[in-house]
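re: ur question from the group chat, yeah i did fold both. here u go
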Amino acid sequence: MIPIRNAVPSRYPPVITWMLIAINCLVFLFQDSLSPDELELFLQQFALIPARYSEAFASGDADLEAADILPFFSMMFLHGGWLHLILNMWTLWLFGPTIEDRMGHARYLAFYLVCGFAASVAHVMFNPTSIVPALGASGAIAGILGCYMRLFPMARVVVVVPILFIPLFFKVYAYVFISLWFLIQVQQSMMALLLPSASGDLAWWAHVGGFIAGFALGPLLVRSHQGYRPYYADEGVFGFDTKGRI
């Protein structure tokens, strides 16, 4: 199922979501301009390599400097290819504005970074010996999905299911769509523990960690009714109410 529409309306322009998408795209264009050797050095410095931290803690040298912490955040602005970038930015574009609208710009940005950090920590915890650079905004975006399911479980998400060459469109509850997505992440994460060679290079545990962080923290950051004017009865998206329900 490929999501193509979020039915929950937003009142305020998603400035931070636009900014995050722009930064991710600009960083990727910079990556794409590097030579293979330059790209390898760039990823060694800014992508997240779990083995680097497990060795430090195993030796008792846990005094990390700012440069050591930076990859926990910088990795969420890097991507491994055009498809990786497009899928992440499309999901962020669909669901990010709704969460930003309910939190406000500053809280949303902090929420996004915290979810990305939680995703990085989860990846290091469950892949302590990995020397593969981890990168991508998936963990932070997973936090947005977790928050969305917590705030709008009964909202309808319009998805397309391609059957051969025929696209079929459906409206599904947000909790159904996101729960199925999360179960896939958990299943793949467990397979990565049991059969590391069959898991590929995807940071499945980062998705799980980011989702749990967003599900738990998101509702705590939603601004009060005094700081956010509720929708009137006649507002919303055509065919849906103000919480994305039919």
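okk and heres the other one u asked abt
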Amino acid sequence: MSEQPSAPISDAWRRALALLESDLRRRGAAEKTRHAYAVDGGQFVRWADAHRLAPADVNPRALRRYAAGLTEAGQAPTTVGRKLASLRSLFRTLVEHGELQQNPADLLSAPRKAQRLPYVLKPVEVAALLDRIPADTALALRDRALFELAYASGLRAEELVMLDVGSIEFDGERVRVEGKGAKTRIVPAGEPALKAIARYLDRARPALATAESDGALFLSKSGRRLSTSDVRRRLRVWARQAAGVSTAGGVSPHALRHSFATHLLENGADLRSIQELLGHASISTTQVYTRVESARLRSAYANSHPRA
């Protein structure tokens, strides 16, 4: 596959990338999403320039050649699929701005990839993990509040670190969350989580806060807002110490989020409610949890029925 990372980009493709960036900003896309689209788009336009293809010259056949080159270069199906999704957005933008008549990427299917079910902890494992976190230091109090809330409300790591002190509504027993695409949602928070947050605010956050804390709820030991890497690292630390918790599947903030949704489904919550709690734009994203439940039932049947 011919690619020249340092080669200049033609004016037509530079304009196309600028239009995509402008549209993503207008739609409230996260910075890391815009960066990923810029990287994927930049890689493709350099390939297109090397093959003397202007935006109007790109057709499904050319895109299939490009995708085949990615696969031959050792790119995983998930990576190729993501890059093609970026190109679909790029050409959709050109269509919307009248630069093209149709989107050549609409006729291109993503490479097949193995469907992996999300890793889910059992309720007893979640309890063992959370109960293992003591209340003896400021950082432990913070971590207990952090992960109690992650499981109680099904929040993403990015959403947890963006919370401010004012995001917690104790009287209403709920939390105001800034989700993907700058969309705000209100989700309930259980009593154990609210009690852990109250202890943290009373006994730990004042000791961690500095002039740079700026209202952030969860603070690092230096008084700054926690990062998502901090959240993942601290959860791994406590997971290794918790008795009865398997770390083989990778205990992560997203595993707590998956566990939140699966346990709701197991106990009778409907998919539409779970979709709203998770902040999913589409119900199809939430339907992965029905596969988790189905897999659990099949396993229970196979292990328990005498003629399974």
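fwiw on the second one: The radius of gyration is 23 Å. Strands lie at 168-169, 174-178, 184-188. idk if thats what u expected
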